[in-house]
Amino acid sequence: MTRIITLEGTFNTRDIGGILNKEGKxxxxxxxxxxDALNKITIQDVEYLKHLGLKTIVDFRGKQEVIKAPDxxxxxxxxxxxxxxxxxxxxASGNIVDDQQKIDALIKISSTQEGRLQLKARSDEMSEQMRxxxxxxxxxxxxxxxxxxxxDENNLPLLHHCKGGKDRTGFATIITLFILDVSLEKVKExxxxxxxxxxxxxxxxxxxxxxxxxxxxxxxxxxxxxQTKEVYFDAAIDEMIKLAGSIPNxxxxxxxxxxxxxxxxxxxxxxx
Length: 272
Description:
Blueprint: E1 14-15, E2 32-35, H1 43-51, E3 56-59, H2 63-68, E4 78-81, H3 87-92, H4 99-110, H5 113-121, H6 125-135, H7 137-150, E5 158-161, H8 168-179, H9 184-210, H10 216-226, H11 230-244, H12 247-255, H13 259-269
Parallel strand pairs: 2-5, 3-4, 3-5
Antiparallel strand pairs: 1-2
Helix pairs in contact: 4-5, 6-11, 8-9, 9-10, 11-12
């Protein structure tokens, strides 16, 4: 069974089912789905998600992102917004409507030597964004609320998404897999699968950006924000260990993953 879910209106949707944890237990399908935004899903997509029995949608986008591109409603599905206030991820996932304003600002920065150096220095912004998802007390509260949803089978199947389904959504998947005792190697492998899922979408976005500018500094910066890179994943893990000494300690101290919650989630998500 493939983990990739092909919908007409999304480009990065997949089930976390099928992954084996360190004990050799398999994550059940149709418990949790990760995705990009649902603002372009079709009638057929809605019917497919209804057929899955989807009960909860968690949207990690910020208020303005939601206003600009609200999700298509699915009857009977509970919607919850848990934005971690990730500004860089928001910028990375912009759309054609606000491209001109965004690129005009970047061209202005790139017009001076100092500005070009600034853009180069900012090329690692997404790594810093991932660190903020780990260490921000506000983000911690949002992801703790997300984890709490996973302890109640009545909330499942659950689909979680941001705009592109890469960073804010990726982090939610990372912590879920760690709770389920999936190895670091396999968690990273799952994170990097987004690179494959988003390849054609990213090329399309870069072609759209090229309609506005051929400035290499601006295009390189924008491309970097959209990429799925190992260094982004590594930054999140490094920050967890820096804060708490280990990943399990981080989950417990910063995301309130008690032994009781962990066992409950494992009971719900793992094959018997």
